[in-house]
Amino acid sequence: MPGHILHAKCTCGFERELWPGASITELYVIAYSTDARDLMTIESQKAKADHLMVIEDPWLKAQRIDPYAIPSFDSAWGPYRCPSCAKDSLQLWPSGNWD
Asked: DSSP labels for the chain?
């Protein structure tokens, strides 16, 4: 099952590589940590059980609208709230796919 590689970047310097998608047995989502000071890829059932705020994979969302959509690697999705500076300045950049 496939997934996407996204690079989260904020002007404050915060960066994370995120890997939402599905393996044979698990579904992985992007979520803020329990204290909202970090962003991670986590198994969806764990995110739900821990009541974490989840960010929908924007690449997957675009593909639901247009199955043939290919993101521009020169533009990002966002803005989202940055877990480091708490401003709405975090962007998610497409970086690749995983399999």
From this structure: --EEEEEEEETTS-EEEE--EE-SS-EEEEEE-TTSS-EEEEEHHHHHHTT--EE--HHHHHHHH-TT----TT--EEEE--TTT-SS-EEEEEEEEE-
